[in-house]
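Design a sequence for this backbone.
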């Protein structure tokens, strides 16, 4: 049985909802806050003011959706990209290396992450969930020596945010080096020896781009 195709009305609703979410991401990334009117949001999305409440009950709901969608899309992309990697320490490190490079590769997504730093630590979606899983897997495999996963996750999130802030003001050709230095320090903090750290951070990164280039 073939899957039902969306109707014209459903496609139009999806386009409107997507436009609102992308406008919210852009505004939040650029301003660092969401202190704007619904009129400003709908104008940025190029949709009618009256359509807003057909999709979201409030600005807060829209912002939560915009942040969640951005972080989950990136985390899902990383998971798919690294699905065939057996070493959880490599999965963790490569995810951090790619995320640290977002200032260069996906600046809007990087700014969303920097502005919503709490979501990297305790949100029920995106990097918080995936990073916790990777840390626990690396501990189980004897690759990481960690006393408290929550503290390790906080260190990971804090390092990523600080690194992206540092990269924002750095020359573009130094971003990759800065990101990798940060990952090396985190791996050492998690109990890895220098030989393993050097080997992991020297691995070539997957030659792929996120599925949604708009981020």
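Sequence:
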């Amino acid at each position: 049985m073939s899957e039902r195709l969306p109707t014209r009305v459903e496609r139009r609703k999806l386009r409107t909802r997507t436009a609102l979410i992308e406008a919210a991401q852009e505004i939040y990334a650029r301003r660092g806050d969401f202190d704007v009117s619904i009129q400003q949001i709908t104008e940025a999305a190029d949709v009618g003011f009256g359509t807003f409440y057909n999709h979201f009950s409030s600005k807060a709901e829209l912002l939560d959706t915009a942040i969640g969608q951005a972080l989950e899309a990136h985390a899902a992309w990383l998971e798919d990209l690294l699905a065939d990697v057996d070493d959880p320490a490599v999965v963790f490190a490569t995810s951090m290396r790619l995320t640290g490079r977002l200032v260069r590769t996906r600046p809007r997504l990087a700014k969303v992450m920097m502005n919503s730093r709490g979501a990297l630590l305790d949100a029920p979606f995106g990097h918080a969930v995936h990073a916790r899983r990777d840390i626990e897997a690396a501990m189980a495999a004897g690759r990481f020596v960690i006393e408290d996963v929550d503290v390790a996750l906080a260190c990971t999130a804090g390092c990523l945010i600080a690194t992206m802030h540092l990269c924002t003001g750095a020359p573009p050709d130094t971003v990759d080096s800065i990101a990798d230095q940060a990952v090396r320090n985190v791996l050492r903090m998690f109990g890895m020896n220098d030989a393993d750290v050097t080997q992991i951070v020297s691995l070539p990164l997957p030659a792929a781009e996120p599925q949604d280039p708009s981020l």
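The chain has a mean pLDDT of 89.
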